[in-house]
Design a protein that fits this description.
The complex is a heterodimer.
Chain A: H1 14-24, H2 29-44, H3 48-51, E1 68-73, H4 78-92, E2 97-101, H5 107-112, E3 115-121, H6 133-140, E4 151-158, H7 167-178, E5 182-183, E6 188-191, H8 195-216, E7 242-252, E8 262-269, E9 280-283, H9 289-299, E10 306-309, E11 312-315, H10 316-322, H11 331-341, H12 344-351, H13 355-364, H14 367-373, H15 380-386, E12 393-396, E13 408-413, E14 416-419, E15 422-425, H16 427-433, E16 440-446, E17 461-464, H17 471-483, E18 489-495, H18 498-501, H19 505-514, E19 519-524, H20 534-540, H21 542-550, E20 554-559, H22 564-580, H23 584-596, E21 600-604
Parallel strand pairs in A: 1-2, 1-3, 3-4, 4-5, 4-6, 17-18, 17-20, 18-19, 20-21
Antiparallel strand pairs in A: 7-8, 7-16, 8-13, 9-12, 9-16, 10-11, 14-15
Chain B: H1 8-14, H2 23-28, H3 37-42, E1 48-52, H4 57-62, E2 69-74, E3 81-82, H5 84-96, E4 102-104, E5 110-115, H6 117-129, E6 146-147, H7 155-170, H8 177-182, E7 209-212, E8 226-233, E9 236-244, E10 263-268, H9 273-287, H10 298-305, H11 307-318, E11 338-341, E12 346-351, E13 357-358, E14 360-361, E15 364-365, H12 366-376, E16 380-383, E17 389-395, H13 399-408, H14 419-423, E18 425-426, H15 444-457, E19 467-470, E20 484-490, E21 493-498, E22 509-515, H16 517-534, H17 541-547
Parallel strand pairs in B: 6-7, 7-8, 18-19, 19-20
Antiparallel strand pairs in B: 1-2, 2-5, 3-16, 4-5, 4-13, 8-9, 9-10, 11-12, 12-17, 14-15, 16-17, 20-21, 21-22
Classes of the chains: A alpha/beta, B alpha+beta.
Chain lengths: ~600, ~575
């Protein structure tokens, strides 16, 4: 047996190979070695179809009718985590189950499925994650199968400060019912902190699933027989995921006069902390003591009162500082306050049919604004119960470990406005901006396997990153320069003003000189009468964008999910349509294929 | 024998395809607010300098941002005449694209500051729409031609202005680059692009010309490369005394560089003015030093080769024999301010514009006031060589209305200002001028206040003393002609010069080197004390410091009372 096996590829299978390549791109040496052993084991067990779900034959026949499929669709990895947890719970309860990423799950499989759980997050303007686009399109179509045989449960993840909270989950839930499937349990929804709701959903869904299974085969439950599959990247050798970082630089990188204060933060971290370009770090913020005091005064709640925090008694003051969201509003909280304040203005806002009205409101208000502008009393217990758990804040890493001497850099826009004469700051950005020299902070490394440089150094990349969305691309460009990659790097950046908000201008100029950056297109929206955004630049360069795509370039989009990412997506569709001479459907297929093969990746929030 | 290499700017000029260079590409490059390096030299010929806000350099570098590049745009405005329509257009551009101010230069032109690259073309195009161009306002060519501003407009003064305009037109570069780049190639019929007398590399260095009408020397004719002193006999312009080789610029610590007063070459009739001017320009074109830009002005060509040689060249080239100079007398190089009655029932109002800055600031809304005046005014505006403004040709019955507008906007009546404040000049300097070593415009108001205090202390507040401040030794405020001059050495430090006069006839001399404000004030305090005690009747401060030897070794001057029209 030779050491290097020829790949069993036939002409009929280029797509499968591409899919395989995509999936292994971005994996490190250790991961690839692990994978080789893993897949060899699977091959010997005759279970290779399960390892690479996209290459799977319709699996229904191969599995017993009474097994559970858990499908996840994730943008930031939280839905995947929920999926993994649900899988573990099902299996530990003796339910045969498998976990599949949604872009590896076909309608054909769905048509034959009897038990399905879905964990899915919602992006930006109520959209599903990128990996679910094709599935959603197919499911919405006239050719969608009748699903009378299916029992299902949907769990949604979202952020209730967005207007279309958990909309992707809702759409999926409703569509499955429309197609004749039976709901096992009511849709679960999680807002930022998904632990508790996911647990509740898991146990409800599990008991209903067991009922279903017992009714079908009352004698015995099938035992777990399918190998537990974790997404490939999760199998990476354990690097520290939580680590201390020491601040070594805190530099404002917008000029005076700029409306935004954007900081370039530099941290020294232990050499063992391993990240890849595209990864992020999460920070657990702490609310400012002054803000906590102000909330206590305004609500009349007793800061020393003991309240319940997930079964743990804690003083309200401490709870508000450490584990409740004060700087981000969500609809249930506004509703709860409106009920107390009994104010027409709030009632009107909540009743508004215009989705932008509420998102504008939460963009401009914090809880303290709510309670000072429309005063109403709150009890300590109610506050503890109604305020959302304090979520971590994630920031894309702006440095390359090899290209920036092992330093970890972040690009952080400070949320710092004045409303009603009071200064309103973001919890985490304030904390980061206020860090003194040498201050230490604890980060959690958030791997982003869906946002990876091509392994192939010859491949061109097109990076679209306006605002602080440019952060990972600073890492990308430095990484590729350090690796000596020969592929061209094209960056499209945008902000409001050239003079004051051209983030990392000197670095990009230098990169253009050295060739580390091949091309830089800029859209400064407010420097002329008409607004110009990154998508307009793409459309202006349509022929070149398409030529890059056709020559194999990978496209990356990072930044705002509510407007920028859909606008860029539409621009790309339009470019493909015109340049390729296809209709809208053809363009959508083209981009879907790019997505499926990992050549269209997005990190949007 | 090795031939010295030409200066780099010569290479840039000769490779520029008629001053085009890569300006179009530079303007289109969105990644930087700057131009490509060579284009930074070429754009001067189009009337603009690339600058940056030096106050912000460090801060922006740390923020990973390039310097705050912007452009100064200077107009070509022979004799400093602007119509109300032109004034309003420039005012609007200043607000829309520049830093909200207009600056009147010491060469009777407008400057806009702080125009960013992406707005440069729109701004220049808009200026041209009201017939104000910027061609050759900077660069190695003849710059804006100055002319004496006489408040009481007379036919002779109009003739002088007319000659300034003709001279300016005659010495314009012929390249169409300007129209192509800024005006989208609007062709002007019958324009031949070959540079018939400049040649492909233009002049070795900047070139400055003025026409003076005695007894007024507001243009400081002896500071010019080329000057024409009008000779008027029986109310008729009979010709000009030709002056050549003046210049202010020098470099600190380089003795081979120096300010120089122009020589009076002789007299010629008005019909020869253009031929004589062209002969002076072509002689400098052919003999000026193109290897060393610090030795390239006409003054060095003449100093090195001799006045007689130069006269011969000019006479031969112009085909004109210069007659001996006719007598002339200058009474002052300052401006008369306030209300002045002209002919035909029209009035003129001279306004003091400190450092030439037309702005709305510190409770004085000068910019708004002048815009309001321009909307109603049917005369002209005249920019004076002393950075002042003459609102010209006001009908008698409109006087009160104009006064009221100014009063409402907090603009001071110039008569209330001390003579020192009426006369002081400062160049722009920091933060935008790349050459500045110290503050000038921003320091002047504070300095004047302190010097006024000293004058008051010695009961000299009514003395018409000429004070000029320059941020570097290049001398845009013509400091070497002032009775008191400060020339920047480093932030907060200046060389103090004393001994000029009130007529612009002589150069002052370095008195104290590299001193800070306390030293400057102490020296002036001491000199003022002696001046108060020992001056003779009518004796100006500059004449006095020479006579009593405060500055030693300078020839005495006659005591000439400064008189203003």
């Amino acid at each position: 047996m030779s050491a290097v096996l020829p790949l069993p590829l036939t002409d009929a299978e280029p797509l499968r190979f591409t899919a395989l390549r995509t999936r292994v791109e971005g994996l490190g040496r250790d991961e690839l070695l692990w994978l080789s052993g893993y897949s060899a084991g699977l091959a010997l067990a005759g279970a290779v179809h399960a390892a690479l779900p996209q290459a799977t034959e319709p699996a229904a026949a191969a599995r017993t009718a009474a097994s559970l499929t858990i499908v996840y669709s994730s943008q930031t990895g939280n839905a995947r985590k929920v999926g993994e947890r649900l899988l573990a719970e099902a299996q530990s309860a003796g339910v045969a189950a498998r976990l599949v990423r949604i872009d590896a799950y076909s309608l054909k499989e769905l048509a034959a499925e009897s038990l399905l759980w879905v964990a899915i997050s919602t992006q930006g303007d109520g959209d599903p994650p990128d990996d679910a686009r094709a599935f959603f399109d197919a499911l919405a179509g006239r050719r969608a199968p009748k699903l009378a045989q299916l029992s299902y449960a949907v769990f949604g993840l979202g952020d209730s400060s967005y207007p279309h909270f958990c909309a992707a989950a809702r759409k999926l839930d409703e569509r499955l019912a429309e197609l004749g499937a039976t709901r096992l349990v009511a849709r679960g929804e999680a807002d930022l902190d998904f632990d508790v709701p996911a647990q509740r959903f898991g146990s409800d869904a599990l008991s209903k699933t067991r009922e279903r299974l017992e009714s079908e085969s009352p004698t015995s439950l099938p035992s777990a027989s399918v190998t537990v599959l974790r997404p490939l990247v999760a199998a990476a050798p354990a690097a520290p995921t939580t680590f201390a970082a020491q601040l070594i630089g805190n530099q404002r990188i917008t000029a005076r006069g700029a409306r935004k204060d954007v900081r370039h933060l530099e941290f020294a971290v232990d050499a063992a902390v391993a990240w890849q370009p595209g990864d992020a770090v999460a920070l657990k913020p702490r609310n400012a003591a002054a803000l906590v005091d102000a909330v206590l005064v305004a609500t009349g709640a007793d800061g020393d009162a003991t309240v319940d925090d997930n079964g743990r008694p804690v003083a309200l003051r401490r709870l508000l500082a450490e584990s409740r969201e004060l700087t981000r509003l969500a609809k249930p909280l506004v509703a709860a306050h409106a009920a107390r304040a009994n104010h027409a203005e709030l009632a009107q806002l909540l009743a508004s049919k215009e989705p932008q009205a509420f998102s504008r409101f939460v963009g401009e208000h914090q809880f303290i604004d709510l309670v000072t502008r429309w005063p109403a009393a709150w009890t300590a217990a109610d506050l503890a119960q109604q305020l959302r758990p304090l979520a971590t804040r994630s920031y894309s890493i702006a440095s390359s470990k090899s290209g920036h001497d092992g330093e970890l850099h972040l690009t952080v826009a400070l949320r710092d406005d004045v409303h009603y004469g009071e200064r309103r700051q973001g919890a985490a950005s304030r904390q980061l901006a206020d860090l003194g020299e040498d201050a230490a902070v604890e980060f959690e490394l958030v791997a982003n396997p869906r946002f990876r440089l091509p392994v192939d150094g010859q491949r061109d990349i097109l990076m679209i990153g306006p605002g602080t969305g440019v952060a990972p691309f600073r890492s990308f460009v430095a990484e590729r320069a350090a690796r000596g990659d020969r592929g061209r790097n094209w960056l499209v950046f945008g902000e409001q003003h050239f003079d004051t908000q051209f983030l990392y201008q000197l670095e990009w100029q230098a990169a253009l000189k050295t060739g580390a950056l091949s091309r830089l297109d800029l859209a400064f929206s407010r420097d002329q009468d008409e607004r110009v955004y990154v998508q307009h630049r793409l459309l202006q360069r349509a022929a070149e964008v398409y030529a890059w795509l056709e020559s194999g370039a990978a496209v990356y989009v990072c930044g705002d999910a509510s407007r920028m990412a859909p606008d860029v997506h539409r621009a790309l569709l339009q470019i493909v349509e015109r340049q390729r001479g296809v209709d809208a459907e053809g363009a959508a297929e083209y981009l879907a294929e790019l997505t499926a093969t990992g050549r269209y990746q997005r990190d949007v929030y | 024998m090795s031939v010295p290499a030409l200066s780099h700017v010569e290479d840039i000029k000769s490779a520029s395809r008629g001053l085009r260079g890569t300006l179009v590409e530079s303007l289109a490059d969105p990644v930087t607010g700057a131009l490509a390096e060579d284009d930074q030299s070429l754009i001067k010929f189009h009337g603009s300098y690339q600058q940056d806000d030096r106050d912000l350099r460090d801060e922006r570098r740390r923020a990973k941002l390039e310097p705050a590049y912007s452009f100064m745009i200077r107009t070509r405005l022979p004799g400093g005449v602007a119509t109300p329509r032109q004034w309003l257009a420039l005012d609007e551009l200043a607000t829309r694209y520049a830093n909200g101010t207009l600056r009147l230069t010491t060469r009777q032109a407008f400057q806009l500051h702080g125009v960013v690259k992406r707005n440069l073309k729109s701004t220049i195009a808009a200026m041209n729409r009201v017939l104000v161009d910027t061609i050759a306002a900077c660069g190695d060519v003849n710059r804006n031609v100055m002319a004496t501003v006489v408040p009481a407009r007379s036919p002779v003064e109009d003739e002088v202005l007319d000659w300034a305009r003709k001279l300016s037109e005659h010495l314009l570069p012929k390249t169409r680059a300007y129209h192509e780049i800024w005006l989208d190639g609007e062709r002007i019929e019958g324009v031949d692009e070959s540079e018939t007398f400049y040649g492909p590399t233009y002049l070795p260095r900047k070139f400055k010309a003025a026409v003076a009408l005695p007894p007024f020397n507001d243009v400081d004719v002896f500071a010019q490369d080329l000057g024409f002193i009008a000779v008027v006999e029986q109310g008729r312009l009979v010709g000009f005394n030709l002056t050549v080789g003046g210049g202010m610029g020098s470099t600190h610590g380089e003795a081979a560089t120096y300010p120089r007063l122009a020589d009076v070459l002789g007299f010629h009739g008005p019909e020869h003015l253009l031929a004589v001017a062209e002969a002076v320009v072509t002689t400098q074109r052919d003999f000026g030093d193109r290897t060393n830009r610090k030795h390239a002005r006409l003054k060095y060509t003449i100093a090195d080769r001799g006045v007689e040689w130069f006269r011969g060249e000019v006479e031969r080239r112009a085909g004109v024999t210069l007659a001996p100079a006719r007598p002339f007398e200058f009474h002052s190089n300052a401006d008369r301010l306030g209300w002045i009655e002209g002919s035909g029932g029209r009035w003129h109002l001279g306004l003091r514009v400190l450092s030439g800055r037309i702005a709305d600031r510190d409770g004085v809304d000068l910019r708004s006031a002048l815009a309001a005046v321009a909307r109603e005014h049917d005369g002209d505006f005249r920019l004076t060589p002393n950075q002042n403004l003459l609102i010209s040709g006001i009908p008698s019955e409109r006087r009160e209305r104009i006064s009221a507008i100014l009063r409402e906007h907090g603009v001071a009546t110039p008569e209330l200002l001390s003579p020192l404040r009426q006369r002081a000049l400062a160049c722009v300097a920091l933060p935008t001028c790349p050459l500045a070593m110290a503050e000038a415009e921003r320091y002047l108001p504070e300095l004047i206040g302190k010097v006024e205090d000293l004058l008051a202390k010695h009961a000299l507040i009514g003395q018409p003393i000429h004070l000029r401040v320059s941020g570097c030794p290049n001398g845009c405020s013509r400091p070497h002609l002032a009775e008191i001059a400060l020339i920047g050495k480093a932030p907060g430090r200046y060389n103090l010069y004393l001994g000029g006069d009130a007529q612009g006839r002589v150069l002052n001399r370095l008195y104290r080197e590299n001193i800070a404000e306390p030293g400057i004030l102490a020296e002036l305090d001491a000199a003022f004390a002696r001046y108060a005690a020992e001056r003779e009747a009518g004796e100006g401060f500059g004449v006095f410091v020479r006579r009593v030897g405060i500055v030693a070794g300078l020839p005495n001057l006659d005591i000439r009372v400064e008189t203003l029209p």
